Amino acid sequence: MITTAKRLDTVEEYYFSSKLREVRQLMSEGKSIINMGIGSPDLSPSKAVIEAVASAIQDENGHGYQSYQGLPELRKGMADFYQNQFGVELNPNNEILPLMGSKEGIMHISMAFLNEGDHVLIPNPGYPTYTSVTNLVQAVPVYYDLKEENGWEPDFEALEKLELEKVKIMWLGYPHMPTGARGSLALFEKLVAFAKKHNILLINDNPYSFVLNDNPMSLLQVEGAKDVALELNSLSKTFNMAGWRVGMVLGNPEIIDAVLKVKSNMDSGMFYGIQKGAVAALNCDKYWFEDQNKIYRRRRELTEKLAEKLGCKVYKEGVGLFVWAKLPEGIESSEKFIDEILYEKHIFITPGTIFGSNGEGYIRFSLCVKEEKVQEAIDRF
């Protein structure tokens, strides 16, 4: 019998991968499931993006292997986007690396910098992939608490009390997933200072800046951040291109080059047509964001009504693609709570526990659901 690698003992199948099988089974039984769990935009990219891809498909030179670093015009588009939106100047030749989605960047960065036994600071609650990738490369997850009473921001006194000598990487993501906490430039400045003090590679995962957020920020706006920091970003949420798999990692040329060493051994470049579509997306004007947010604002208002109908207290300060809500007093298990709703009302909501122990007592609603479906979910109660 062929045995699996020991590293698989450190991870479980991704929650949504297994849970959605359960949801599909209910659907096959004729249940009308309203899926409010997944942050996969149901809206379409702009017309300009579709036209750019359609045109690129006709290019006879567009079907071969592409550069590991992406098209020069894609890197320039990413640099211009950061300059226009954040006031951050980046050299498109060596400070930007396009990715097939920012999720793969988490693995590439971890493989480039982590040795067995290195420690990694991971937010609790936070994106589960930080933990699974850390385990897969045989590093050690060390969780730092984010709590509502602190605005879902780190407690720096508590951070300083951790054993930091072995810490190589610190993950963060503002606007925060799953809570929607905005963060601030003051917070970023403190994080950069902390990373410099302890010689830690700081990485901000930043795909939600433009969803219901009137003050988009980048970690790279902080003076000196490039010395110790990278930023991941994605076109998935901002431009409704989740399935296209277009992301980027940005920062210091030496650090980017280390990531490229891994990436160039993992793929053979991004499809030409997708890159051309991404260039078009990055050139969208401010009205794109305004129109998207009009839709998400209406959805959020309805989703908050649904949460309150369940007796939950909504985290009103949140931005991004989700609504984070605290369960009523006396509810002991988020997972049991959402399962009862799934099987009784046929609505799928994400339990906060999949994001870490500090997610117990909370649930998360996705805004990737049409208004009429959210209203139907309300009506089911």
TrEMBL record:
The keyword Repressor does not apply. Keywords: Aminotransferase, Transferase. It is an enzyme of class 2 (transferase). Pfam families: Aminotran_1_2. Its cofactor is pyridoxal 5'-phosphate. One of its GO terms (molecular function) is transaminase activity. The keyword Transferase applies. Its EC number is 2.6.1.-. SUPFAM superfamilies: PLP-dependent transferases (SSF53383). Belongs to the class-I pyridoxal-phosphate-dependent aminotransferase family. This is Aminotransferase. It comes from Flavobacterium hungaricum.
